[in-house]
Amino acid sequence: MRLVIARCSVDYAGRLTAHLPLANRLLMVKADGSVLVHSDGGSYKPLNWMSPPAKLTVGAPDESAAEVGVVEVWTVQSAKTDDRLIVNIHEVMHDSNHELGVDPGLVKDGVEAHLQKLLAEQVNRLGEGWSLVRREYMTAIGPVDLLVKDASGGSVAVEIKRRGEIDGVEQLTRYLELMNRDPLLSPVAGIYAAQEIKPQARVLAEDRGIRCVILDYDEMRGLDDVEHRLF
Amino acid sequence: MRLVIARCSVDYAGRLTAHLPLANRLLMVKADGSVLVHSDGGSYKPLNWMSPPAKLTVGAPDESAAEVGVVEVWTVQSAKTDDRLIVNIHEVMHDSNHELGVDPGLVKDGVEAHLQKLLAEQVNRLGEGWSLVRREYMTAIGPVDLLVKDASGGSVAVEIKRRGEIDGVEQLTRYLELMNRDPLLSPVAGIYAAQEIKPQARVLAEDRGIRCVILDYDEMRGLDDVEHRLF
DNA sequence: ACTTCGATTTCGCTA
DNA sequence: TAGCGAAGTCGAAGT
Question: How would DSSP label each residue in A92-156?
Fold first, then answer.
């Protein structure tokens, strides 16, 4: 990985065109040829970048560029598309190279898959005496997160999200429409379960007779731990 | 901005828990206290990070950590939430500090807003003798991108996307349902316009009587340039 | 290989 | 300021 701190301007031409005026920035050149342009603020997203695979070519500025103070021109060309990033370097303040090797990668825990697993084990959170039929219950248009039965044996399709937005309601609606055409399943009720449900999504869901349930992740995980400790 | 190349392991605890095993990585500390952990590959997203505002505290390892080779422990605490990033540093290969100043920011061109503006000026692309009624036509559930009239005076709602996917069809369907309840507007036809329309989205749209139109951005921009040159 | 869907998404606009 | 849609989204999992 090569790290360069430089006063530069940057132009991107590809799926859109974008321009960065002259300023001091970090240029990160990775082993796969990708280039990231970072400022000293914002979040993890660079101001501008080129995705791998790409090829970095360093050249001399043309006459008119040299006149305005450009000392070096970087051309980062995408290997697959005709996207291109041009960096006009006016002054280099730092330049260093480092061998990092391949990264072993990130280990995650606590995303939607985990929520689904926990709720499948704790179906009673949805109602007293309810039971799980299947996780990832397949329909013609895709899998429903959970299919459960209420205390009186009625089918309920559950859509689980970390953050409940309007598209999740649409998704569940499509499943319910389809499942209610199946005489073996019908009637099927719907539940939209999430750690957080946006007001618009809640209104749409309830307007369609879909119940909304807020999931407390910490509580569910805690209960899970307790259950595991008992065994 | 502080740049550190170090052999380290990283743990994140917050909205989820995540772990990075021991390896060589770049640690970027920005002026706002945010920290980015980058490897020498992947895309512009770091392996792990802490969003601003955050506070970095450097401490000594406890006894057990020191035994396994940790020489320094970084604790990055989010200022707003209880998210926390812990970096166990085993060896520092590089450490430098750089003054970058505030960045003037990015200038963009060619996104959905631009597409909408261009199509509003070139309504004839949708049909001979068509005319624009309004951009961002407000309804109770949100603004329709374009409301236009066809050659015979019939209303048409247009949803514009850069990439046409299924959720855009759902969105337009909701608008059409609502608008067709208004006797002053009804009947309202629908058009789904995008630079690219996914097959599933096309099938769903056409099944609902929504016409699909592919927009050629370069051609539209070119035509726009030509028109501007004439004035 | 292609498609679909989630994300510690982040970003930007609007009400 | 909160909410909502878009992104040069990226990335992983399943088909």
Answer: EEEEEE---------EEESSHHHHHHHHHHTGGGTSTT-EEEEEEEEETTEEEEEEEE-TTS-EE
Cα distances from A43 to residues A47, B25, B77, in angstroms, run 10, 18, 15
Cβ distance of B40 and A100 shorter than 8 Å:
yes
How near does any CA of chain A get to the CA of B19, in Å?
A: 5
pLDDT digits 0-9 by tens, B18-61? 999 999 999 999 999 999 999 998 889 999 999 999 999 999 99
Domains and CATH numbers, chain B: 2-97 (2.70.180.20), 112-230 (3.40.1350.10)
Cβ–Cβ gap B20/A99 under 8 Å: no
A165 contact to strand D (CB, 7 A limit) = yes
- The whole-angstrom distance between B44's CA and the closest CA on chain A is 7
The answer to whether A83 and A13 are in contact (CB under 8 A) is: yes
What band does A225 get if pLDDT is binned at 50, 70 and 90?
Answer: low
The H-assigned helical ranges of chain B are 63-67, 112-121, 166-179, 199-207, 217-230
Are residues A1 and B26, on separate chains, in Cβ contact within 8 Å?
A: yes
Across the interface, of A15, A36, A40, the residue whose CB is closest to B44 is A36
- Chain A neighbors of B16, CB-CB under 8 A: 108-111
Distance (Å, whole) CA B193 – CA B198: 12
Of B35, B95, B46, the C-alpha closest to A36 is: B46
- Report how far residue B143's alpha carbon sits from residue B168's, in angstroms, rounded to the nearest whole number: 13
CA of B1 to C1' of C9 (A): 24
| DSSP type of residue A58 | E
Rounded alpha-carbon distances, angstroms, from residue B77 to A27, B56, B80, B84, B230: 26, 7, 9, 5, 58
Backbone angles phi, psi at A165, to 5 degrees: -120, -175
